[in-house]
Amino acid sequence: MNFSERRPWFFLLSLLVILPGVVFLILAPGLNPGIDFTGGSSITMQFPEGAGANQKAIREKLQAIGYPESTVQNLGNSTIDDERYDLFFLRTKTLDETEKDVLVATLNDQYSPEQTNTLLSFDLVSAVIAQETVINACWAVLAATIGIFFYVWWAFRKVPRPIRYGLAAIVALLHDTLIVVGIFAILGYFLDTEVNTMFLIALLTVIGYSVNDTIVVFDKIRENVMTYTNRPFPEVVNLSISETMGRSLNTSFTLLVTLLALLLFGGATIREFLYVLIIGVIAGTYSSIAIATQVLVSWDQKTIGKLISS
Amino acid sequence: MRRNARILITIVIITAICGTILGVQKVRLNNLERGSDDLLGLTLGLDLQGGSHLIYQAINPETGGPEGITEDQMKSLSRTIERRVNASGLGEPIIQILGEDRLLIQLPGIKDPGRAKALIGETARLEFKHRTTDVPPKAVENITDDDIVSLKAEEVQSDGTFITDEERNNEVSSDPIETAEALVVEFTAEGFVKFNEVFQTLITSANKSMSLAQTGTLIPPARLGINIKGQEQLRYNTLGLNMYPVRTEIRGESELVVNKFIIALPSSSDGSKSTLSVEDANIKIGTDPTISFEISEGSIDEDIGLSGDDLENAYPSQHQASGAPIVNIEFNERGTKAFGELTTEIYAKQQSSGVRDQIAIILDGKELIAPVVNSPITAGTAIIQGGDFTLERVKDLALLLESGRLPVPIQLIQERDVDAMLGADSLRKSVIAGIAGLSLVLFFMILYYRVPGLIASLSLTIYAMIVLAIFKMLPLTLTLSGVAAAILSIGMAVDANILIFERMKDELRTGRTMLSSINIGFNRAWPAIRDGNVSTLITCAILYWFSDQLGATIVQGFAVTLAVGVAVSMFTAITVSRTLMRVVALTPVSRNVRLFIPTGGGEIEDHVQN
User: How many CB atoms lie within 10 A of CB A18?
Assistant: First the structure.
């Protein structure tokens, strides 16, 4: 398979996946930030199945007791000791101890009159901390990106124009990040899915995986460039991709198997986290084959400018 | 081969050590103690075992912001909170100072985070109270003659029970009945309840003064004054301990509700007989007595608004003249004024009436000490001395006084509470998912890569054991984000093996021998493994550094877990897998090259032909 010739199609496919997300991200309303980034309180509660608790009813209840700005999300259900429960995630303004007690008691009276243990988790983040988290998260992602760039540059110092490898790795990394963030902007719009610290960690995991995957293909290119010095660069890249394809697909497959196992058997609380990883692993595998390498080829063929202008 | 054998033995030993570490719930090496009661003795994070995670911001009372908080203040804050939480029995807190002015408090397994927060956040748990011991008696107004059915003096058994007719008549009883003279007051049902309240007050006060007596503080117990106007006046005081309620009485077969109280008559100095005989008492009482009660509180603690907030400092030292151990206390401006007024008032009363009031110092509702006042103290510094003070006692007292206040006010800025049930559920599900995921991966590896897959599976199992053993020994707290990092690091460990096998396969296809294919395969795969893992380690280092600044323990746990996983995966992929492969290459199995080529290995002929 000649990957290099098809690269416009690869870029187009990526663009088609990224574009809707970016539209949602830029136009409105962007990502739906959780309390980790905005400050406030969040509560996870469970009510026995069939007690009549649903997203709309709970939201109305919260409005009635003075929390009009709150959001409610259904996390699905769980089984504990053979009892089935519906799980709900509520987000409100910062609650103090009394306000929290009142809120929980109100919902308890309504949906779980007999069982008192409905509060699964409670989170509180002050505005100060939230602001710091946002700033630090941005810095951490930026620092990681720069660190990776310099390392790849250094690691490929023996091949001609090593800086391109560093930059191409970063392009692939940003590609994967944009796909995940874009999809979550869409999910946030339609399903109230929010991003929190766990989302950030998942994103960093994706970045780690993406770079790792890219480096494996680059490593093969590095080797082949030295071996076949007289072959044209696109051909060397093609050969390298073919040679590493089996490994790339197998690694992604095993990782996806593990993630799907977690999704099936794991708790409801880390489901969104796993969605990020699954999307990210697929994007990362694709980008290391179709984006990172093809950026190198385009650069080599001096078609980068053409690509941007077209 | 000898080198392989050596490495193989090392691997077996490492595996055995890790297996033992994981197998034993709690490990103890010299003074190093590791392990827990949880899964494999691992330290579980709050999201897996339930609990509370609280971050407080220290506030400079002068500026209202975080500026100018010193390291000493943070340490003192941490110690104070630790003492409070420990003393409350809410469990052992893990307290950590974050950056310069924040405190992270983790309370694993706590059931009632609200109580913990109240305890931690309250600045003043220490109260100074004015204790008066000459409390004037107060009439018990809600008990009147209407509440009383009958009143007479009677001879009762000294254990407070009535002498039954049977016992009285049975003169030949082997044991002479120990008797005492007492008033027997029969109440109406309503009256009994009212009088019982009075009785409970007396008993509580008696118990308090007995327990305080053990710490060296003497306060009189509450007393009940009884006034009987009958034929003559009868009036005396008694303690709660001299009274017994008799709710029911057994008469023959049936049990009767009687609502009686037995109140011992004043006894003679040797305590054997009442100073008043039953007959004399009954004469005085007559046929139609009126009775009234008055209660004298033994002591009253008056709140004067002086608290731990007003205390600047407390430290142990020795008296300049006598060398006796003492506790020094220093008040702030407000405290100096209040303490000055208090001591002046107490001293003046002492001079005029001779009654020595006390200053009760109470921490968390428990009395520490109640010194008396020797002179008015208006300078804001005082010493507390006591006849039985030892060096340890004054040290503890000073510490306790100090712990009554936080050195600086704090504000809750982040909280994460996880119910133990949710934690246990997450843990159980993670374990199931982990086992299922790992099994699937191993199954796939063996199916696809055959013998090398089998070896990779073995090496992955060893990998998992080493990682868990390191977690247990460091110890690293396992959280849900750590689980995520573990997945990624397993992915990378698998990846390293896959890289090696693919390279090996290439070499086998070119017709190399098994052993040289293995060696070249590993060497060729190494740069990719190294570069991939180093870039991951860079990410971990950056994450760790940022989360340390932020106190984001979730992110930090992720970074550390991933770094450990990646480092160990490099070791197992290179050393363990390679050695095992070499050993297998020397066995007859290696002659069947097909067992070493991935599924779809039919390609090998094609390639050779090409």
Answer: 19
**3-state secondary structure (DSSP) of residue A293:** helix
How far is residue A190's CA from residue A210's CA, in Å, rounded to a whole number? 27
Give the one of B421, B490, B535 whose C-beta lies nearest to A148's C-beta: B535
Asked if the Cβ–Cβ distance from B436 to A270 is below 8 Å, we say no
Identify which of B414, B417, B541 has the shortest CB distance to residue A126: B414
Backbone angles phi, psi at A303, to 5 degrees: -105, 5
Tell me if A258 and B552 make a contact (CB, 8 A cut-off).
no
Please choose, from the candidates B405, B558, B112, the residue with its C-alpha nearest in 3D space to the C-alpha of residue A122: B112
Q: Residue A307 has what pLDDT?
A: 52
**Token pair in block for residue B110:** 């706590």
Q: What is residue B309's three-state secondary structure?
A: helix
**Residues within 8 A of B (CB atoms), A 88-117 only:** 97, 101, 117
Reported CATH class of domain A7-34+128-309:
mainly alpha
Q: pTM of the entire structure?
A: 0.68
For residues B111 and B196, state if they share a domain: no
Among residues B359, B383, B416, which one ends one of the domains?
B416
* Chain B 539-568, residues with CB within 8 Å of chain A CB atoms: 539, 541-543, 546-547, 549-550, 552, 554-555, 558, 562
Closest CB to B538: pick one of A151, A257, A258. A151
Q: Can you give the CATH number for the domain in which B36 is found?
A: 1.20.1640.10
Shared domain for B530 and B548, answered yes or no, is: yes
Residue A243 CA to its chain's centroid (Å): 29
Give me the residues of chain B with pLDDT under 70, please. Answer: 1, 28-32, 35, 37, 87-89, 122-125, 157-179, 252, 267-275, 364-365, 548-553, 598-610
Interface test with B, best of A158, A197, A271 (most B CBs within 10 A): A197
Q: Which of A37, A18, A45 is nearest to A198 (CA)?
A: A37
Check B498 against A251: CB less than 8 A apart.
Answer: yes
Q: Distances in Å between the alpha carbon of B7 and those of A54, A111, B113, B273?
A: 60, 62, 51, 93
Local confidence band at A306 (pLDDT 50, 70, 90 cut-offs): low
The H or E element that residue A239 is part of is helix A233-265
Does the beta-carbon distance from B429 to A143 stay under 8 Å? no
What distance in Å separates residue B579's CA from the closest CA in chain A? Answer: 22
Residue percentage of chain A with pLDDT more than 70 = 94
Please confirm whether the linkage preceding B475 is cis (ω < 30° from 0): yes
Residue B93 belongs to domain spanning: 51-123+409-416
Q: Name which of B59, B412, B425 to mutate to probe chain A: the one with the most chain A Cβ atoms within 10 A of its Cβ.
A: B425
Are residues B474 and B443 both part of a single domain?
Answer: yes
Are A139 and B412 an interchain contact pair (Cβ–Cβ within 8 Å)? no
pLDDT in tens, A262-274: 788 776 667 788 8
Q: Is ipTM over 0.85?
A: no
- Cα separation, B461 vs B456, in Å, equals 8
Amino acid in position B384: I
